[in-house]
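#data-curation
PF: Archiving a pair of folding outputs for the training set. Convention for this channel: one message per protein, sequence first, C-alpha cells after, nothing in between. First:
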Amino acid sequence: MVKSTKHQPPRTREHPNTKLQAYASRAAFFWGLKCLWCLVLGVWCFNAAAQPSGDSVIRYPAGKSEIVITTTARLAGAIHSLTWDGREFINSADHGRQLQSACSFDNSPTANAETFNPTEAGSRRDHIGTNSTSCLLKLSAKENHLQTRTQMAFWLAPGEKSEGQLARNTNTLSDYVLTKDVSIGYKQWPQALDYRVTFTVPTNATHTSAQFEALTGYMPPEFDAFWQFNPKTQKLEPLSDGPGEIKNPVVLATEDGKHAMGIFSPPQSQPNTTGPSYGRWRFKEHEVMKWNCVFRVHDANEIRTGDYSYRMLVAVGTRLQVELMLTEWMSR
C-alpha cells in the first residue's frame, strides 16, 4: 500500500467545518476582488461579466439511461453533479468536494498539502457559499463534451492554518491553471468518461516536489461498498476502509451493486513521476465517501515548470459493468 500524504483525521476540505460559517458572507467579497485583478498568462479578468458563467450541462445516452454532467458558476466550472439511472453520484456540499482536481507542492511533515494547495472548485473560505475564489477563464459545453480552463484558488487564505500549520501562499488566487477536457463515452463504452487534465505550473515557481490529485470524486454515503480491481484475476475484490492509496484501481458502489463508479489511469510514463495510485476514504460522520487518482513528481534539484498532463477513465454503471470496463482497459 502507498502511504498517502493526506492528513488523518480528514482534512478540512474533505468535510464541512462549522467554524467556516462565518466566512460565507466574506467569500462573496473576496470573489469580487479577485475578478477585478485576475492575471493569468497575460489575460486580465477585469470583472465578473468578463468570465464564462460556469453553468453548463452535457449528456449522452448510456445503457438504460443517460449520463448527465452539470457544472456551476458557484464552483468555477468544476463538476457539481453526475447522474445516471436516477442516481446522483457526486457530493457537492462545499467547495472541496465535487468531481474535481487539485495540486500541492513541497509537502512535508511540517508543511502539509493544504498549506499550498491550488484547488479547482475554490477555497475553504468559499465553504457552502454561492461564489468561488477560483477564476473560470474558459468553458465550452456541447453535447457530450466539456472543456474548461480555471485559475485555481489556494485552498487556504494567507494567515489561515490547516492542522496547526500556516498557509505558505501569500495570495488567495494562485497562478496555477487547470485545463480539463471531459467526454462522456469512450470507444464502445458509453458509460465511461474520458477525462483529461493539464496542470500548468507558472514559470516563476520553484519546487522540488509536486502532488497532482489528477482527479477526485466525493460521493454520497450510499456508495459505501469499497472494491479494488485485481488485474491478475480480472475481478473486483472487497477493499478495506483504509484509508489511503493503493496501486490497484478503486471502485465505490452501492451495497446492492446497482450503481458504481471506478477510476483507472492508462499507462503514461513521465520523468521523475510515480503513480498513478488510487485512494479511498470513508467519512461516516460527515456522510461522504471519496476516491482519488494521484501522481507525484520529485526532483532534488527542481521540478520543471509548465504543463503536467494526465488522462483518466471513469467507469459509471452497475458494479458488473464497471468490472467489465476495468477488465478491458487493464488488459491492453
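PF: Second:
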Amino acid sequence: MRVLVTGGAGYIGTPLCVRLSQLGHEVVCWDPGFFGYHFGETPAGLRLVPKRVQALCAEDFQQLRPDWVLHLSGLSNDPMADFAPRMNWAENMRATEHVGALAEAAGAALVFASSASVYGFNPELLLDEDAPVSPIGFYSESKAAAERWLLARHSRCYVLRQATVMGRSPRMRFDLLTNGMTLTAWTRRQIQILYGGREARPQIHVEDLVDAYVAILNRDALAPGVYNVGATNDNVTELASVIRERMKSEHARDVELVVSDEPRKHRSYRLSWSKLAEASGWTPRRTVADAVDEICAGLGDASLSSSDPRTSNIRWMKLLAEAGVILARTGPVLAEDDEPSALE
C-alpha cells in the first residue's frame, strides 16, 4: 500500500514509518524536521519530504496517490499549547482540516492521531468511545474540534484517542509521564509526584501504538469512527510505584517518591480499548516495566541523551522561537556551502 504519514519524523511517526517500510509499504514521511530526523540510514521504501503539512496540495495527492493518510502532525501536549495557543489551533485544528479535505477529495482513508485527553475529568468510570467529551485546555480542545470536523466531513476516517505514550523511540521524548519519571529516577534517584498523584492517566507503549496503526491498515472491514487505544489505567502514584520497584529490582537504584498535594481538577480518566481490540485483533503486549527497562538501558550505555533539548517539546520550541527572533535580525548562521554535521 501507499501510505502518507504526516508528522512522520516524530516520537510516534519515526518508528511507525520504519515499521511500515519494513512491511513492504511505500511510505512518504511528510515532516519539516523541527526536531530533526532520526531514521539513521533511511529504510528502503521510505521517502522523506521535509515540508510542513500546510504545503500539501491536490497535486501532491495526485502524484503520491496514497491509499492511507496517517495524520500525526501537530503540536503535542499542554505546555506547548499553553505557550503558543494560536499556533496550537493552527497546527492541530486548521492543518487537520487542510489534510482531511485533501484526503477526502483524493479518496484516501485517514487515521487521525487524537488524544484521550479529550475526555477531560472523568476518573470514576471506564470510558468507552461513547463517553462524553469534555476537553480541558487548549491542546485537548483543538484535538476535540479536529475530531468533530473530520468525523463530519471525511467518509472513511478513523480517530485514535491515544493514551499517554511511553517507551523508547529513535526521536526520544522525556516530557511524557512514564519517560520523564524514569529519567528522574535514573539521574536523581527521585520521582516527584504532583497533586497527590490521584489523577488517572492511561498509558500505551509506543511500539504497541505502532501495532495499532498497522492493525487498522490491515483490516479492510474495520468500520470508520472513534477508537480508544491504551494499555494501562494506573493513576500517577501507582505508576510511580511501579517505576520505583522496577528501578530497585532490575537496576539497583533506590528511588524516593516525593509527593506534593496541591489541589486541582485536571484531566483524569480511565479508558476501555476493547472496541479496537475486538474489531481489529490488536492487543497491547508491552508494559510500564518494559518501557522503564529500555529507557534505563539507553541511559546506561549513553545511546539516549538526557541533555538533548529536543527530548522536551516545550524546551526545544522555546529555543527555536528565541533563535528565530535572533536569526530574523542577524541572518543565517552558516554559509550556504557549510555542512551542519554537528547539528544532525
